[in-house]
Amino acid sequence: MTAPELFSLSGKTAIVTGATGLLGRQHCLALAEAGAHVVVADLNLEACREVENSLPGHDHFSCQTNVTDPASLAAARDAILKKYGQMDILVNNAAVNDMFENPALAAEQSKFENYPLAMWLQSLEVNVTGVFLAAQVLGTPMATRGSGSIINVASTYGMVGPDQSLYQKPDGQQVFYKSPAYPATKGAVLNFTRYLAAYWGKNGVRVNSLSPGGVENGQENWFVDNYSRRTALGRMAQPTDYKGALVFLASDASAYMTGANLVVDGGWTAV
C-alpha cells in the first residue's frame, strides 16, 4: 500500500460527536475530504444538517445525539448501522468548557475556592461519562466486527496544569481562572484511552487520543499575545491545524498505534 493509500478513508463510516462546534466541523471536513461517509452527531439536528450539507462528497448523515443519554446513543447506533452496515471510526469530540455568564464575576466564580459543584458535575457528565458511553455504545459494534479506530479528543491541559497567567491582562487584572474541571476531565480521557486500547486491542479496535492546543477564535488581542509567547511556534492554532493529525489517527497510516496520545500543540508542552 502506498503512503497516500494509507491515509485514504474511502468507503469507511466515521462518527463525530460534538460535530457542530469549532473543531467538530473541521474534523468532519477532514474525514470527508479523506473519503469517509461522515455521521454528523450533535444535540441540534438543524445545525448537524448545515454541517452535513457543507461537506464534500456525498452520502453523509446527520444524527441528533446526546452523548450523556444511552438511549440516544443506541438510537444513533441503530440508525448508522441500518444506513451503512458498519462503523469504522469514532471521534469522541463532544465536550463542555466553562463559560461564565457575567464577565464581571468570572474571576471570582472561576477561582478554585468558589468553583460551583454544578459546573464540576456537568463537566464530568459530558467530558468523561459522555466519552465512556459513546465508546461503549458505538464502539462495541467495531469490537464485535474486529476492526475500528476510536479517537478521543483530549487537551494539553489533560497533561499539564493550566497557566493561569494567560488569563491576565497587561495591567495585571486576572479576568478569569481556568477552572479545575476541564483539566481533570481531560486527564481522565487520556487514561480511559489507555484502558480501552488495552481492553479492545485483541478485538482489532485501536484507541488513541488527540491533544490539541488552544485555537484562535476571536479572543482579545492580549490573550492571543499571552498564549503565543508561551508557545514554541509563537502562535495559537488555526481550526484547520488538526485535520492531518485526525486523518492519520483514523486511517491505516496509524495501523500500529494504539493507547497513544498525539500532541499537536505548537510546542506548548515542550517549553
Can you summarize this structure?
The chain has 271 residues and is α/β, with parallel strands linked by helices. The protein is built from nine helices and seven strands, in the order αβαβαβαβααβαβααβ. The protein has a seven-stranded parallel sheet, with helices on both faces.
Uncertain parts: none
Q: What is the number of domains?
A: 1
Helix content bin:
40-55%
The proportion of residues in beta strands is 5-15%
Could you tell me the CATH topology label: Rossmann fold
Fourth-level CATH superfamily:
NAD(P)-binding Rossmann-like Domain
What is the count of β-strands?
7
> What value does the average pLDDT take?
96
Task: Give the C-alpha Rg.
Answer: 19 Å
Query: What is the SS-derived class?
Result: alpha/beta
Helix segment tally: 9
> Strands across the major sheet, in which order?
3-2-1-4-5-6-7
Shape: globular
For the record, the CATH class is Alpha Beta
The N- to C-terminal Cα distance equals 37 Å
**H/E series:** HEHEHEHEHHEHEHHE
CATH architecture: 3-Layer(aba) Sandwich
The major pleated sheet works out as:
7 strands, parallel
